[in-house]
Amino acid sequence: MSRHLERLLQIDELLRSGQRQTASSLASALEMSERTIRSDLNFLRDRYHAPLEFHRTKGYYYTDSAWRLPTISLSKGELFALTLGARMLEAYAGSAYAQELRSAIARLGERLPDQTWVDLQQLAEERILFRSGAETDLDPDIWHRLEEACRYQKTVQMTYYTASRNAVSQRKLDPYLLHIYRGTNPYVIGYCHQRQEIRWFRVDRIKQLEVLGETFVPDPTFDAKDHLEMIFQHEAGGVPMPVSIWFDASTSPYVRERRWHPSQEVQEHADGSITLHLFVRGLNDLKRWVLGYGKGAIVQSPPELVELVRAEVEGMGRQYLEN
Q1: Which of 41, 64, 266, 289 is least crowded, fewest Cβ atoms below 10 Å from its Cβ?
Q2: 56 with 80, same domain?
Q3: What are the C-alpha distances in Å from 84 to residues 29, 60, 81, 105, 242?
């Protein structure tokens, strides 16, 4: 923001403060000469057509209080879209940006007449709701430090909790990028020095994080777009392999209506059932996803995935029989 524009915003704020303002009081508040302030007031009138008048008792004031200094050219609809976008990001990405978002949208809202802004806020709060389901306990400080590490290619040392083993370990990581999966699962993707491969780490499971002084050079063969397209959900490990899953006629509409993976192909059958073909890395997330459709889904290949689902179903059956 230019110093001139910043000064005009300060003058505008003082004129709306409800206190009597003169060229002298404005000059004193902004620590500028009266000549400069008078020039700025004329600039507001001539360039921005400000309805600015001077009265011996009232001082300088706007004859139309709904007028706003057009520092940012945003329509009411554009600001409303930004407001909804901010609420959506806050709901789905956690609290990492909550304070900054509220502040930025509020400052943009100052450019609109008061009642218009109140109406927009009320509509956004009462008529369009965003719910993320289960929330993550994301530490904004850790998230922002990871942003810094990604930006400046700084290695980090972290204390990480692995849910599958219910254990805490120390990890040294070269963070390549941050990824928010399904809006609520924040991941950092990078080179793990311990495993010596690209790994994913849930940011909300990082208990402590230190940005180290050493820098890293990303693996030149790593392509973020190709990497993310090859995985199913968030499982990145394993060798890419073809997968085929059959869905019965009553389940197929729920599968058909979404694109689950960039590689997917849907094979339609005469009875209304479908076969979904994918080419992905990792099988554990696929196993959990298929089980969510119960008897409406049958894995056809690969044999490894068939066995994973069969073992899970048999284990569940034993547990229910025993109880």
Answers
A1: 64
A2: no
A3: 36, 36, 5, 10, 40
Is 88 found in the same domain as 58? Answer: no
CATH of the domain at 183: 2.30.30
Q: Which range of residues forms the domain containing residue 83?
A: 76-126
Whole-prediction pTM? 0.51
Structurally, the chain folds into a number of domains equal to: 4
Name the nearest CA neighbour of 192 among 208, 212, 171, 177. 171
CATH at 35: 1.10.10.10
pLDDT tens, residue order, the chain (323 aa): 467 877 888 898 899 988 999 999 999 999 999 999 999 999 999 988 999 999 989 999 999 988 887 655 556 666 666 666 666 666 655 556 666 666 766 666 665 555 555 565 665 665 655 555 555 677 888 988 998 999 899 999 999 998 778 889 999 999 999 887 665 678 899 999 999 988 889 888 999 999 999 999 999 988 888 777 666 655 555 677 899 999 999 999 999 888 888 888 999 999 999 999 988 877 888 898 899 999 999 999 999 999 999 999 999 888 888 76
